[in-house]
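hey so i finally got around to running the thing on that chain from the lab meeting. sorry it took forever, my laptop kept dying and i had to restart like 3 times. anyway pasting the input first so we r on the same page abt which one it is
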Amino acid sequence: MGSESPCTLERDRRTAPGTALLESDHLLFRAGDERVKVMLADVTRADAREDALLIETSSATLTLRLPAGTAGKWLAKIRNPRNLLDKLGVKEGMKVVVLSVRDPDFLSQLEGRIGAFSTRTTRHADLVFFGVETLKGLDRLGALRDTLVPNGAIWVVRRKGKEASLRDIDVFAAARRAGLVDNKVAAFSITHTAERLVILRSDR
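ok and heres what got predicted. didnt touch it at all, straight out
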């Protein structure tokens, strides 16, 4: 999940009160029907002065007036963004299993960080990335739970938006049946989201 804050947007000699949302790859301002979205990859300059966050791209300049202390924190996130693997908690030396997740960017990043990973279930896994699109597929969670180390996690990767065939409540219900609990959600890609499931503390 990103960072959200009330703010005032200053752009093209206009001001508008609204809400700003800072995600790992973009900054979004919303005010009624108005939307201003800036991809962080397009930012050519970013600075913070007291309560003002200054953002420049090749085609626009905007200032966000934020609550005290927020501008500096957001600037740090913009200048040092966490990549996908950081958000997913992937660290060198981990034993990782990938099942039915075919995103090439994710797989390339994963191989670059940890080297080899398994595409079959294996014992004592630190992380399992499980791509699933059906309710029936969620029935595997119980078996996957048994492959984890006590403090391991399963990331359920599923399609989001209008194309979604599963809802978050479907994942959470299946998790409870398998003796798991959800404790984090992450934007996996433009088309997919991911929920992290872990073993109940009382069962570790």
